[in-house]
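Structure, all two chains, one model.
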Amino acid sequence: ILNVEQSPQSLHVQEGDSTNFTCSFPSSNFYALHWYRWETAKSPEALFVMTLNGDEKKKGRISATLNTKEGYSYLYIKGSQPEDSATYLCASLNQAGTALIFGKGTTLSVSS
Amino acid sequence: DTAVSQTPKYLVTQMGNDKSIKCEQNLGHDTMYWYKQDSKKFLKIMFSYNNKELIINETVPNRFSPKSPDKAHLNLHINSLELGDSAVYFCASSQALEGRVFFGSGTQLSVL
């Protein structure tokens, strides 16, 4: 089964700091890369779906980039706020294109 | 007006019992999934259905049997429940396999 790796596992920053996380995935047979935000006691919610090498997506203070040739994606949060505290998951379609496989997530904690 | 709804939200039962979790989506999606969240909050794919047809079954014991009566429903039946089945189970759907995934609110299963 496809291996999606995320780092760091957890991260603690101060309000106002900018931060970024990494997602790595096998670059062969790439279909799509997803980022999700998962708050405690809620369900994961999609942030971005990216398919093209060099893709950059932005939603408010959060943005993501994609490199399909080397198999990685970065998620950036500018000026972190306490409400950004959540687990950020990336996911990629498996090589057969039959299911979305999730990484173990990066848990972000933002202190005010 | 929930997009993906699953019931029950909590399920407490004895070892050896048979139970079902229901899932319905009103988004018109053609693909539905069951994910299991383990104790470390890792989301692991169990089943993937596309247009009512099973397309992936990831090393799940055959005590777990999904049933898709139509595209909008994917129910999960579990026979002879074991202690290790205790987890949160998430139903989800997407339009095509590469579309963003919408999750239900989860069912917390506790096997005593």
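The interface with chain A takes residues 33, 35, 40-45, 48, 50, 55-56, 58, 90, 94, 97-106 of chain B (CB under 8 Å).
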